Amino acid sequence: MVDLFTGYGANAALRAERGAPSAWDEMFPDLTSLTPVEARAAYKDVFAALAKMTQEELRGRTAALASSYLAQGVTFDFAGEERPFPLDAVPRVIEQEEWITVESGIKQRVRALEAFLADIYGPQAAVHDGVIPAGLISSSNHFHRQAAGIVSANNVRIQVSGIDLIRDEVGAWRVLEDNVRVPSGVSYVISNRRVMAQTLPELFVSMRVRPVGDYPNKLLQALRASAPASVDDPNVVVLTPGVFNSAYFEHTLLARLMGVELVEGRDLFCSGGRVWMRTTAGPTRVDVIYRRVDDEFLDPLQFRADSQLGSPGILMAARLGNVTIANAVGNGVADDKLVYTYLPDLIRYYLGEDAIIPNVDTWRLEDPLALEEVLDRLDELVVKPVDGSGGKGLVVGPAASAAELATLRTQLLKDPRGWIAQPVVQLSTIPTLVDEGMRPRHADLRPFAVNDGTDVWVLPGGLTRVALPEGELVVNSSQGGGSKDTWVIGTEPDFFSESSARNIQGLVADQAANTRSAGTHAVDHSPQDKPLGDNTEQQQQQQQQASAAPAPQRKAGEC
Amino acid sequence: MLSRIAESLFWIGRYIERSDGTARILDVHLQLLLEDPWIEESLACQSLLHLMGSDAPADRLLTRKDVLATLAVDRQHPASIAYSVKAARENARRAREIVPTELWECLNTTSARMPRKVASEKTHDFFGWVRERSALAVGIVESGVSRDDAWHFFNLGRSLEQADMTARLLATRSLTVASGPSWTTILRSCGAYESYLRTYRGVPSARNAAEFLLLDRLFPRSVVFSISRAEQCLREMEPRTDRVGVTDQAQRVLGQIRSQLEYRPIMDILNDLSTQMDIVQEAVSTASEAIGDRYFPTSAVPTWTGEAS
Question: Which among B34, B285, B308 is the nearest to A201, CB-wise?
């Protein structure tokens, strides 16, 4: 019956024999047996539903997921060919109780990062108080002096964040990196859920999966809330680099679901300290720009002069308070991996709290002692550039060749500020359907948070990315990664608000009652197609038979 | 044009539109049942059955499967998609000499390929297929039929059915929460979600959504748009201009209901939505009957009874 999971534990058993560290598996507590039989509580229902399927059946469904994505255009370019964005049929499940911790950890982190950015581009109190060295800030590639003094009306800089989390060898959540520039991937969360419900409905049955469709609405509210104070009905636009951008699908989806205009740089122009877009009805003022263009390309007057993607003067308009750029310019300094190492201190400094979700242990290579230790143990550590995101430029020591390590060594000695080192964390694994069958694969999680100035709202779930090659620890869609639908399941329906849940039940009952009392309207029918008492058809047939029948008789009579 | 033919065209229009509308409503509501765990499935399914004008068995709990079996593929159930598809095809067969061959083949194929069972993971595909077939049929008529009476009767049927479908949908105000999601569902059922978002800049509110689906003069599935188009078809079939009033009963009924909707404050309608929508459905039925009485009088005379014996 559990043929789907046959051989699932093979690799883990092998690793255990060799004494290598093994990852935390999210579905099965015990991987020593070849074919696991008992799932963790969160996965019980999913496991039961999957166990009823054969591998062929599940592969058929996976093919259906892919063809649906191909039809919708949820694709990425692979060697000049459109491939559907890979979505695995097995969802990741997180229980509501656990999710509350994750959620509060994310909220805390976003609040701390907001305070940090406001401080860095303002009084720099943290520097004066010696919490973070001034040199670190000014040497960050993404610290932009041009951003100083630009503040949105509600003081929010991080309207959208995508903080990457992982679970370590004991299943504890840790922050892998902060992402408060232009985090992408939320469109996959929304479209994954839809296509999963269409293709694998039986998995949803009996599970109370918290819906994710509210995101565009929350985002729009947050963007509107950040608009210049003088504007009554703000005009929000999404700024995209254009159709060739790899996240273009996401830009169109967000614009579509928010009902706002999707603009490119050439659709905008600045005049009189304001930003306008060219429309058939003449210039229309723009109040909030949700930009999906990097800082460096936003304004050729301030950053790269050769940029075609932005609009000259946009930053001046923002400085004058006539337009809000979301997320704010200069946020990149908070994504710097060296700043990341200070985050627990910064949380304590700004919020007076301890970090709810800890960082991954990190060596700062500017410290000579740390550098020495890291150089010694280069083959057992992960080394990352401080300003790369999504695994760009990352070197995994145990997997690297001697030549690669030698190059890395010279790079580290030349520019210790540019790198950090971390121990190899075995990311948690989740069952994933690959060529050999159902196998454990490493995954991370990017929960999306929207800050509207009064509250930080965290999308229940987020984007789970999974590395498809065996043992691969770098999880990124540009490096052959897949994704999973992420379910936060409420153990009881009225978890977050008892009254609201009861209201919903009541409403449903009310409405059902309403319809009944109003009387049901049967649909109209053509007199000839009426469902009951219609015997014309039979009569016509009978008549044909009747007229056909006498003929042979007559013939017979003639004979 | 023969009354019998005109009648067939009228009903082809209605049945095509009905299969399309039913598929949309079922698709979105059944999907929502999966995505939103806080809906009571049985109640929602009952409500869905009532919405389509059929009685639900009160003695047992209903599931998605029951709704699918009843409203999608049951060939005997008068409100099902299969029934509408079959009826459209039968009507086309009766008017085979007038109906363009392309349309006939389209309807005939649809009817022949109508599945008897739909697996739960294929429902979305199935509804998508029904919508595509309807779109194909409508497109064939749009692009290849002269704008004569045949076209007017077809469009008249379509418009009336559209008004009826939208009114039905509005009447129950959906099966879920009072705020955002349920209106989103209704809008999506009508394929109106994206137009709505563009028109109202994405702020979902009961008032705006109802206004859009009831009164928008530009959105083709809104009640007012559909009724206006039906009225226009009627006027063009009989271009006489009287100095006083309107003599055609169907035009009268439609004009009355449209004015009622257009000139009444929107909050008045909203506060009493299900009754108001009942009146709209009533008016559509009355208009349909009036059109029948006037243009297809033969249908009242089924004369085969004597010959069978």
Answer: B34
Residues 323-342 of A with CB under 8 A from B: none
User: Does A46 map to a domain?
Assistant: yes
Coil, strand or helix at A515: helix
Substitution target in A45, A53, A69, A198 with the highest count of B β-carbons within 10 Å is A198
- Burial of residue A446 (number of CB atoms within 10 Å: 0-12, 13-18, 19+): buried
Task: Summarize pLDDT for A40-63 with one digit per residue, the tens.
Answer: 888 888 888 888 888 888 898 899
Beta bridge partners of A329: none
B97 in contact with A, Cβ within 8 Å: no
Residue A301 burial (10 A CB sphere; 0-12, 13-18, 19+): middle
Find the angle CA(A12)-CA(A15)-CA(A21) to the nearest 5 degrees: 95
A554 belongs to a structural domain:
no
Do residues A59 and A220 make contact, with C-beta atoms less than 8 angstroms apart?
no
Q: Which of A423, A434, A499 is nearest to A469 (CA)?
A: A434
8 A C-beta contact, residue A332 and residue A295: yes
Residues of B within 8 A of A216 (CB-CB) are: 202
| B268, containing H or E segment | helix B266-271
Query: Nearest-CA distance from A231 to chain B in Å?
Result: 15
Q: What would the pLDDT profile of A11-33 be if each residue is shown by its tens digit?
A: 777 777 777 778 888 988 877 76
B153: part of which helix (H) or strand (E)? Answer: helix B149-172
Question: Residue A61 and residue B43: Cβ atoms within 8 Å?
Answer: no
Which residues face A451 on adjacent strands? A456
Q: How many CB atoms lie within 10 A of CB B115?
A: 12
A473 and A424 Cβ atoms separated by less than 8 Å: yes
Q: Kindly state whether residue A449 falls inside one of the protein's structural domains.
A: yes
d(CA A120, CA B104): 71
A209 interfacial to chain B (CB closer than 8 Å): yes
- Of the listed ranges A315-324, A451-460, B171-180, B207-216, the least confidently predicted one is B171-180
Closest CB to B47 among A205, A213, A512 = A512
A 489-528 near B (Cβ less than 8 A): 490, 493, 501, 503-505, 507-509, 511-512, 514-516, 518-528
Q: Which DSSP helix (H) or strand (E) runs through A92?
A: strand A87-95
What HEC string does A120-179 produce? HCCCCHHHHCCCCCHHHHHCCCCCCHHHCCCCCCCCCCCCEEECEEEECCCCCEEEEECC
Measure the CA–CA gap between A117 and A449, rounded to whole angstroms: 17
Mean pLDDT lowest for which of A331-335, B125-129, B207-211? B207-211
Say yes or no for a CB contact (<8 Å) between A259 and B292.
Answer: no
The amino acid at residue A399 is A
Closest CA to A26 of A434, A432, A474: A432
How far apart CA A508 and CA B241 sit, in angstroms, is: 49
Name the domain count of chain A.
1
Which tokens sit at B55? 């009685």
Q: Enter the tokens of residue B187.
A: 């809008």
Q: Is the ipTM of this complex over 0.85?
A: no
Q: Would you place residue A556 in the very low, low, confident or very high pLDDT band (cuts 50, 70, 90)? A: very low
Which structural domain, as residue segments, surrounds residue A3? 1-144+161-209+336-360+425-507
Phi and psi torsions of A420, nearest 5°:
-130, 160
Of B31, B174, B200, the CB nearest to A259: B200
Q: Are A101 and A494 in contact (CB under 8 A)?
A: no
Q: How far is CA A1 from CA A153, A178, B18, B237, in A?
A: 60, 43, 44, 66
Cα R_g (chain A), whole angstroms: 29
Domain boundaries, chain B: 1-145, 146-299
